[in-house]
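=== RUN LOG ===
request id: a7f3
mode: sequence -> structure
chains: 1
length: 426
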Amino acid sequence: MKIMLCKGQFLGPMSGADETLVNYAIQLHKAGHLVSVLLLYPCLPQDEYFVRLRETGIPVRSVASNSSRTVLGSGRKIARLLMKAFPSAQYFLRTNGQRLATKIASRYREQCRDFLDQSCANIVHVLTPDPGGMVLISAAHDAGIPVMYQEVGIPYHPPIYASYYEQFTTVLPLCTEVAALSPVLVELCRERLPYSNKLSVLPIMTEDLRNGHVSPRKSTDITIGFAARMEHLKGPMILLEAFAIASRRCEGLRLIIAGAGALEREFTERAYALGVASHCEFAGVYAGPGERRSFMERLDIFALPSITEGTPNSVIEAMALGLPIVASDVGGIPDVVTAETGILIQTKDSGAMAEAIIRLARDPQLRKRLGEGARKRYEQLFSPEAVLPLLLDTYQRLAAGELPKSPASSKSFGIHPWAHAEVVWI
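=== RESULT ===
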């Protein structure tokens, strides 16, 4: 079977959709399957995701010209400056920018179709709801190749991205199937996506960072880690407020931040104002499994107080290394973090996050028990051994044009704990 994983473009460091695509591709390749990646727009030679694919031996192709990528990049920078200067005009700027991006992407539809025609792919798997994804879905449909779209977030959320979905949903009838990352997210897709009467669960798949080895912690401090873009929706300021509260009641706490973004300066200034700057560290943006593992091995607790979220890769990576989790109960997180793996809090509640941090910091046995539970849940739901059979079963079923069977008779039933919710036809 020839599998084509597709995306409009790589979006840079710590992109959840990029990470998901690359992990799927690498694990499929390691298992001996024919897999390649098609981008509408070319990526930079030094892009971390491109480098990882190239080093693994996975072909990466693009259709559009480098000049188109440059024009789009320049347009985004200008739009960000305008939205910062004129916040009230954000919807107008996003909507019109989206229309322009769609017009540019549409120029490459025939080239994409011709490329896919020649590829002899058995299945096309598209991620992210952007103009590039629209073109790739349309081209695959025109080429007569079964196409699956995978939603890696929450449709129409946050509201500022509604304009993306208003256009993108017009191509959903062309998809053979739509996949979401967890059962809760399938239900949200069913509620919010028109034409999505064919829905399946296809979880994130993350490489086993532990790989049979556990590095002992050397520090006596209790270290809390955060790994995400430094932006409002990921909640770094909520975590900082919680950390300051916890530090006043519990000695020996440290906070390490992996990521970059618009809130770095504000975060630093607020840390000084709260008197905890000396206990905070910026680790920068990690790239690749090695740096990711090195960061996670420094931690005792992983925290992610997102305001909105699909299924965060960073939480699953932390679980793979046996870390207890503190996270907000939004999006698909409640499908990932349970009472056996961590503590869920209401979003924007820095007081509740502080209490959770204090509770874990003071109770090493609780940290150990939840960490062991997190590792076990990773193995059951998100390891290559758990996800790869379900992924391949889904591809084979779609390529063969088979209708999904009832859970009792489905081939995938029992392959994965979420396979019983695999496909819902209305």
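=== NOTES ===
The mean pLDDT is 88.
The CA atoms of residues 16 and 312 lie 7 Å apart.
=== END ===
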